[in-house]
Design goal:
This protein is an alpha+beta fold. The chain contains 7 helices and 9 strands, in the order ββαβββααββααββαα. It has one domain: Muramoyl-pentapeptide Carboxypeptidase, domain 2 (2-Layer Sandwich), CATH 3.30.1380.20.
Length: 229
């Protein structure tokens, strides 16, 4: 693994991620606050600051109250997914990104610079524009899990649904194929890491089972692509 400032990636992905870091660092270097207009602009694009805890806990609690826990999980995931798709498209268009790896690399770096989480992509990842797409990754500092732990809360199941949705939405838009992501281990549920698997929906159940079984006998960084295909 060779780490950059805003993402951890296998060595073969470093060139694309280094280029992404240069673009996104430049993008976030121009922040203008205009309180008399109730506006924050990052490089001319309107942003809104919000405390992570509000999104991770208060928003989740409100949705759960209306739709129940299972329904809220799906709504949070779909919210993240639609946001990831939208921001990916805007960023691809702004910087004219057409190469698939350049489009992918922008996602984790943008994710880190905008405060969602750091992304540590694992060696078993094989991002391809077909049903054999696999991305495995940790989200150290996930804003959702961190909010739970900071409030002394724990969960019996993974809680990083917005994180999972956002990453799958960004990558779906980048590769123009349907992709889903599932959190297979969560720090808020007692896991060592917040660890995710992203793949084609038709392969999710099978690969999720394989990934979980492998994590019982080896670390995530030791798992190979071939073991998940």
């Amino acid at each position: 693994m060779s780490e950059l400032k805003a993402a951890g990636v296998p060595s073969e992905l470093v060139p694309a991620f280094r280029s992404a870091e240069e673009k996104i660092k430049s993008f976030f270097s121009d922040v203008t606050q205009i309180p008399e207009q109730g506006r924050i602009q990052v490089n001319g694009t309107r942003f809104m600051w919000a405390q992570a805890r509000g999104l991770a806990l208060a928003f989740r609690d409100s949705v759960t109250e209306i739709f129940g826990e299972k329904g809220s999980d799906q709504i949070l995931y779909r919210f993240g997914q639609s946001l990831g798709r939208s921001e990916a498209k805007a960023f691809h268009d702004r910087f004219g990104l057409e190469n698939l790896m350049d489009r992918l690399a922008a996602g984790p770096v943008y994710f880190a610079y905008s405060g969602w989480a750091f992304v540590d992509i694992l060696p078993s990842s094989a991002p391809r524009p077909d049903e054999d797409y696999i991305l495995t990754y940790h989200h150290p500092g996930s804003f959702e899990a961190e909010a739970f732990l900071a409030d002394g809360l724990t969960s019996s199941s993974p809680v990083c649904h917005i994180n999972a949705g956002y990453s799958s939405g960004w990558c779906s838009e980048s590769f123009n194929i349907p992709l889903d992501a599932r959190e297979v281990s969560c720090a808020a549920a007692g896991g060592e890491h917040c660890t995710f698997l992203m793949t084609h929906p038709s392969k999710m159940l099978e690969r999720q089972r394989k990934f979980r079984d492998l994590l019982k006998v080896k670390s995530a960084s030791e798992i190979t692509t071939e073991e998940l295909l």
